[in-house]
Automatic annotation (TrEMBL):
Limits of the HTH cro/C1-type domain: 1-47
One of the record's GO molecular function terms: DNA binding
Name of the molecule in the record: Putative transcriptional regulator
PROSITE patterns hit by this protein: HTH_CROC1
Organism: Evansella caseinilytica
Coiled coil: none
InterPro entries per UniProt: Cro/C1-type_HTH, Lambda_DNA-bd_dom_sf
Pfam families from the UniProt entry: HTH_26
Length: 69
């Protein structure tokens, strides 16, 4: 699935999806996470990874895409 198609299915703008994809987001709404998981048929653990705050300056959480879409 292309990023453009995911953006349309989830109802999130391309710039906002890019922020999530590149790990620059400081937060993600549960409704957005739910929509992404539904569109990709993933579980949250498939795309989220916990990072220790001491190792990640921007945010204690990073979104990591383990599968290509």
């Amino acid at each position: 699935m292309s990023v453009t198609e995911l953006s349309a299915r989830v109802g999130i703008t391309m710039p906002n999806l890019s922020v999530l994809k590149n790990g620059k987001a400081k937060a993600v709404r549960f409704s957005t996470l739910n929509a992404i998981c539904n569109a990709l048929e993933y579980q949250p653990g498939d795309i989220l990874e916990f990072k220790n705050e001491e190792k990640v300056e921007e945010s204690p959480f990073a979104i990591c895409y383990h599968k290509t879409y």
